[in-house]
């Protein structure tokens, strides 16, 4: 995207200019990205958006037109001269895309100059919050769809060009294919598509619409059967065409149901297709599907549906349309920094940190330990906000979550493709106990502070409070 360095909030640039004027621009900063509440009343988030972020950061710069625009907004010539040489040179640490992440554990760290780390805040939040949200929604649909095909149909309902990132995130969360052609090209996602009612309406008779489509597209044909009357017209006509295709050595791929009682219609259509000798013609369903409807169709009603086309609910994360991930300063020139708040839940964890994923004896995820960066093993974790709650984890397997993915502004190694991230997400979900995956009142996954971090946090709080009470009133 052109001028992408301006894809930010004004206050990032206002602060950056202030840091520059104050001689603070080159102080060493560490910022943490984390979220506080899982969306959809669920128990986890699927981390996504890293590849997009790193690709943009590698090439981040202020071009002549952007600098000219900032000049018109009143930014200083000296600051603009500095921005004209700006290149993102920081280090980024994170786990791979597809990792399951939990409230309060920092999962993306930016370590660089105060100026560069501040300047990327909005871009980072925009990309990671959105893609992680959509990947999480997609993963919930994958949870209930089993091995059935999930196709993203959302572009027409997506929020503008966000539709491109939504299609990629849908794959990270477990979707198989997309109708979004640009996403297919950009991210190497298999394309999939059927036809709309307009095609059927453009012919005088449904059977002619089906026949003509099948003549052009043969084995790839999926016929939309609900334009007039699904069971009296659509399915019988599709069966006629399936027979004609077979006579020419082809097989009809599927029919698509797009309205009405999808379980009832799928059952009746399945029987009609089977009785007519077409047990391999698949049944696709669409129409405002989400994870709850898909589960009801498959689990409660045992609907014989093979393919789900999902749009609006997926790409807009309809029931919880924003992930509130935040980006907070943790260290400046190696001094831990804290943000106090009236609300305990909004207080930050100061200092350079590492996150350990703790597994139980069966190898399942048990907890995340947020520790100081130099710690190599965590004995005990403490609840971040309830001091009396603590757990001994000294005997459990501990894996480092934050690994360098970018150094000196250049990515390390190759970025995961959407499908590699999807495979990783699938492995991760298999390691998350069912009580954290369930949709209703999931059991809260433990995220705790190491004793050293807890002490550092408490000291920083005490210092900050003392500072407050020393102020003249
Ligand atoms: N058997 C079913 N069990 C649970 N939910 C279903 C079932 N069949 C359809 N639905 C869902 O019910 C919702 C409403 O279906 P309905 O047929 O009323 O669709 P509509 O969008 O209001 O109208 P239209 O069917 O004309 O598009 C949709 O979200 C659909 O996915
Ligand atoms: O329902 P979604 O999950 O968003 O999936 C995409 C929908 O888009 C298409 O119809 P469109 O919405 O254009 O028209 P319709 O609602 O009249 O079928 C398609 O037939 C799906 O129903
Ligand atoms: O290919 C389809 O059937 C399709 C694509 C986008 C939206 N609705 C349906």
Automatic annotation (TrEMBL):
One of its GO terms (molecular function) is nicotinate phosphoribosyltransferase activity. Residues 150-328 form the Nicotinate/nicotinamide phosphoribosyltransferase domain. GO terms for biological process: NAD+ biosynthetic process via the salvage pathway. Pfam families: NAPRTase (PF04095), NAPRTase_C (PF17956), NAPRTase_N (PF17767). The keyword Transcription regulation does not apply. Pathway: Cofactor biosynthesis; NAD(+) biosynthesis; nicotinate D-ribonucleotide from nicotinate: step 1/1. The keyword Hydrolase does not apply. InterPro entries: Aldolase_TIM (IPR013785), N/Namide_PRibTrfase (IPR041525), NAPRTase_C (IPR041619), NAPRTase_N (IPR040727), Nic_PRibTrfase-Fam (IPR007229), Nic_PRibTrfase_pncB (IPR006405), Nicotinate_pribotase-like_C (IPR036068). Transiently phosphorylated on a His residue during the reaction cycle. Phosphorylation strongly increases the affinity for substrates and increases the rate of nicotinate D-ribonucleotide production. Dephosphorylation regenerates the low-affinity form of the enzyme, leading to product release. Residues 353-455 form the Nicotinate phosphoribosyltransferase C-terminal domain. It catalyses: 5-phospho-alpha-D-ribose 1-diphosphate + nicotinate + ATP + H2O = nicotinate beta-D-ribonucleotide + ADP + phosphate + diphosphate. GO terms for cellular component: cytosol. Keywords: Glycosyltransferase, Ligase, Phosphoprotein, Pyridine nucleotide biosynthesis, Transferase. Residues 6-129 form the Nicotinate phosphoribosyltransferase N-terminal domain. It is an enzyme of class 6 (ligase). Its EC number is 6.3.4.21. PANTHER family: NICOTINATE PHOSPHORIBOSYLTRANSFERASE. Belongs to the NAPRTase family. Catalyzes the first step in the biosynthesis of NAD from nicotinic acid, the ATP-dependent synthesis of beta-nicotinate D-ribonucleotide from nicotinate and 5-phospho-D-ribose 1-phosphate. This is Nicotinate phosphoribosyltransferase. It comes from Lujinxingia litoralis.
């Amino acid at each position: 995207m052109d001028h992408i360095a301006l894809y930010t909030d004004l206050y990032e640039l206002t602060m950056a200019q202030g840091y520059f004027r104050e001689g603070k621009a080159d102080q060493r900063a560490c910022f943490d990205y984390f979220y506080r509440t899982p969306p959809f009343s669920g128990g986890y988030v699927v981390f996504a958006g890293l590849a997009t972020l790193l690709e943009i950061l590698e090439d981040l710069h202020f071009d002549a037109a952007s600098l000219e625009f900032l000049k018109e907004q009143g930014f200083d010539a000296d600051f603009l001269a500095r921005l004209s040489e700006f290149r993102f040179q920081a280090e980024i640490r994170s786990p791979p895309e597809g990792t399951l992440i939990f409230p309060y554990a920092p999962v993306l760290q930016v370590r660089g100059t105060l100026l560069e780390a501040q300047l990327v805040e909005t871009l980072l939040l925009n990309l990671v919050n959105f893609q992680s949200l959509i990947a999480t929604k997609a993963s919930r649909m994958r949870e209930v769809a089993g091995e059935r095909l999930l196709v993203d149909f959302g572009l027409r309902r997506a929020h503008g060009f966000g539709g491109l990132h939504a299609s990629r995130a849908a794959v990270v969360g477990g979707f198989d294919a997309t109708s979004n052609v640009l996403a297919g090209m950009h991210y190497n996602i298999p394309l999939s598509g059927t036809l709309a009612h307009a095609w059927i309406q453009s012919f005088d008779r449904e059977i002619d619409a089906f026949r003509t489509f099948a003549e052009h597209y043969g084995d790839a044909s999926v016929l939309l059967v609900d334009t007039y009357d699904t069971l009296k017209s659509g399915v019988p006509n599709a069966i006629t065409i399936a027979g004609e295709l077979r006579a020419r050595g082809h097989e009809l791929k599927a029919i698509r149901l797009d309205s009405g009682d999808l379980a009832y219609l799928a059952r009746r259509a399945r029987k009609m297709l089977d009785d007519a000798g077409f047990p391999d013609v698949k049944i696709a369903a669409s129409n405002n599907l989400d994870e709850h409807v898909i589960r009801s169709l498959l689990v409660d009603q045992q609907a014989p549906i093979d393919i789900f086309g999902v749009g609006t609910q997926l790409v807009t994360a309809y029931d919880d349309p924003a992930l509130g991930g935040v980006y907070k300063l943790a260290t400046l020139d190696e001094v831990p920094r804290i943000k106090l708040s009236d609300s305990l839940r909004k207080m930050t964890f100061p200092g350079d940190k590492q996150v350990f994923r703790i597994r139980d004896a069966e190898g399942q995820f048990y907890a995340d330990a947020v520790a100081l960066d130099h710690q190599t093993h965590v004995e005990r974790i403490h609840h971040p906000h309830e001091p009396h709650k603590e757990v001994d984890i000294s005997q459990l397997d501990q894996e480092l979550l934050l690994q360098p993915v970018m150094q000196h502004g250049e990515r390390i190694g190759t970025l995961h493709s959407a499908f590699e991230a999807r495979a990783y997400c699938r492995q991760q979900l298999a390691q998350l106990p069912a009580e954290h995956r369930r949709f209703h009142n999931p059991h809260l996954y433990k995220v705790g502070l190491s004793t050293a971090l807890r002490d550092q946090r408490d000291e920083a709080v005490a210092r900050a409070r003392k500072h407050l009470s020393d102020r003249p009133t």
